[in-house]
Predict the 3D structure of the following.
Amino acid sequence: MKKIGILHGKERTFPDAFIEKVNSKNVKGVMAERVSIDKVMQGEATEYAVIIDRISQDVPFYRAYLKNAALCGTAVINNPFWWSADEKFFNNCLATKIEVPVPKTVILPSHDLPDDTTGESFANLSYPLDWENIFKYVGFPAYMKPFAGGGWKNVYKLEDKEDFFKKHAETGQLVMLLQEEIVFDEYYRCYCIGGKHVKIMPYEPRNPHHLRYVADFKPSAERLKLMEEIVLRINHYLGYDFNTVELAIRDGVPYAIDFCNPAPDADRPSVGEENFAWVVETAASYAIEKALAQKPGKDNLTWGEYISKSSAKKKLYK
């Protein structure tokens, strides 16, 4: 029996619907359930061929469990090793190399010293930073947000440099990004599942949270094709099986604003019935596909083109 497990936190609508959808397909030798963990022994395989991860970003114990499971042959969605290494600033840097437009962005050291450090720990950091050229590069208004994490937490809109210094002082030990504001005409949140299935959803981030998917943008066929190509390119390079990409359209150009969402919102009340149905159906079909292809004891993870090409170069030079 190939078991598909879903590892989740407080959310219920997506996990319950996903399990029901997989099991309703009646694929011989495949079934889905909530992951159950009563012990984690080093180097011992789990009972799951596939695990959909929706919570390990908040629970380090789960992340360790998933790495061990992957090492022993479970196909974990998303790859817990890459997810552990990934963050938003690197993604923006990568985007500049794969011809995906992104806002001008800089990374900032934390305002407060990290625990167990002193000023002497930062002998390599110039102080003050070159604020004049940083502000000139990014411009104002600008946005400041954590370089890792999501959920619209600790996101600031900044009007000028005085506003920046005041609000940066509130961020404590968080490492922040300072990012150009993209004044957009249209905005889209795009699901990508399996590196091949894309759902482009009109999205209005300026609305209250429960109304953000209530937007009437009507992209042309040409723009839809361009956005789909960008979404696939990003996910192929990052290697995510389950992710969302947010695209802001300015002067006809799609800018990738946020594209590190490996446990994206899939709650029925927020995404809406049509989008919810697509995510459930597509995720279930892809999980079954992964389960049928899974080989016990082997590496069944998805590795993005950035890692794969780097590995190929190293082999070439040996």
In short: The domain at 2-83+285-306 is CATH 3.40.50 (Rossmann fold).
